[in-house]
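Inputs:
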Amino acid sequence: MTDTLELNPSPGNSGTLIKPVLGYKRKPDENVKTLSYDLLALLTIFLIVITYHIQNPLLQFERQFGKAFRNESLQPVTALGLFIAVLVFIMPWASLRRNVPRFTMSALLILYSLYMVTAIVLDYNLSGQVFSIPQVAFHDNLDVEEPALAELRDNAMNALQATTAIEYLALAAVIGLWQPWRRGAIYRKALQKYTSALVVGFIVLVAWELLINVFKIEEFLLPRPSVIAATFLDIYPRLISVGWNTFVNAFWGFTIGCGLGILAGIVSARFVTFSRALLPLAIGINAVPIIALAPIMNNWFGALNPASKVAIVAILVFFPSMISAVRGLNSADPLSLELMKSYAASELAIFRKLRLPSALPFIFSALKIATTLSMIGAIVSEYFGGSTQGLGYRIRDDAGLFKYPEAWSAIFVAALFGIFFYLLVSAAERAFMSWHVSFREK
Amino acid sequence: MSETITVENVTKRFRGNDGITVHALDNINLTVKKGEFISLIGPSGCGKSTLLRVIANLIEPTSGTVLVNNKPAAQARKDREYGFVFQNATLYDWRTVIKNVELPLEIMNYPKTVRERRAREMLRMVELGDFENKYPWQLSGGMQQRVSIARALAFEPNILLMDEPFGALDEMTRERMNNELLRIWGTIGNMTVLFVTHSIAEAVYLSTRIVVMSPRPGRIAEIIDVNLPQPRGLETRDMEEYFHLTSRVRHALREGVGGS
């Protein structure tokens, strides 16, 4: 038979089936075989630890790590994020029924994340009920050192210990499901792939550190990486909170701008006259450095109003996403279109079943570029004035006051949020386009 | 037997980008009866694919009329009277094999249960029943083309239009696909097939009639009846009549080219 199943089209390897890497029985699933599964496991662990810290007043107000995620709008996102991460992490759900240990660990994770969602999103902490702590103690900054509240502190301590036990169970469940010790082959392959990048990064850091010592470059010109790291560890709770505020602006600008851009792209791809009028204009406007509009947006919406930042980001990402959507929707191959014609398919059916799926690769590469653009827009627009609780404001302010290690730490946090945003969109891309050539087995 | 396809005085001229008019089809007349297996054969540029596309109403003729199942071609396309198989399988990468076969049924608004049942039936017929949840890019070229045949037959059209469907396959796969196609044609019964090819062996082996075309301008040079016994198999290719027909087609092709 020449017609063997070829999952692996490379010569000499044809006909081999994928061997499941994992020990327990589950369908060979694309995600499990890649590093993205490890990233997801780490994210889940990270979110378990964060939610654990921000649901108890003793940790939320007294520990650096707890303070870092105290930001009002960030808290519910961590809890809901944990819930979603857990749901994705325990996939494929159908396999859970047959496997008792996997089922138990997954159930434990879901219960833990539900506990955190009720505690953090719905402001109802079950441990408060059990250990008779008023719910207000969980979110208002009560000074538990006050003698009158000493009893509360004991109760909070008991609640903390009980939650700690559950947290450890949840962490054990993640590791039990993840089984990193069985993934050596994947890590070896990844290490081979990324060694050179890691080595170069390490060399750059060491060279940076050494050259500043050797040439005696003044601290205020360029601080050493070790100084930046120390400063970062000292002030990161504040930076993450302001970084989150800026990220939220970037996120809403991204959502509104890309959403409208893709819609405009769909309309112009459908109506040729519309695209003839609009597309050259869009390409022209796309060449304009739109960030220059930031001071004007500050005047329109008010510098302190986040809308001025959201607007600049939305305008920034609108045109690239519109242009990509038009290109993508027109990228369907002629034979596939003829096939649709032979079925006498309606315009709507052609759009839904052919044009949109063929546009996805174009749209997602535009969205990935837009994540970077929107972080740039959100940060730079704060340079022209804005809330003191923004990352751009912090960078400008610290740099202006010669607090360079602080400014560099803020830039580092900006990079973290930028990478996080990019990974988020990449994950969505992987979910919607698992069929695409870039995600196939190599 | 009744007429399934009638082509009358069909002419097609294309104007190329360089402004030169190409005379793709010149006054074509052809009648196809129900249940026939017709091959259109000719050198490249003879308009065989163009003729197939005109019959399918994928392109409009410059002049002349085409009737399919006694309807104008445009109406026949809207009534989904034929299934079309392209040179490459044109499967959609984002759909699994079974979802690809279901595609025409989705567009024609069949209910989900009917869609799945029909698609499974068709995949079993092309012997790909075990591959329904694979993606097209996980299959070999021959398998992909079988999926595309299953898709073309999913809504039970009684006409199958095929545009060099096995042109991209290697010789061995191609011969197996020829047998598959004959088996399917025999199974369904009273199905009319119009098959564009540039392989003489394929045309003689498969057809009940061969339409030999010649280029510049595209026209019918000769129509050759193939009276080889049915069902055909390995022994068919060893028959004296088979060799005789092969050389007749070859000569017709040569004369067609020489005459222009």
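The CA atoms of residues 142 and 173 of chain B lie 6 Å apart. Flag for discussion at group meeting.
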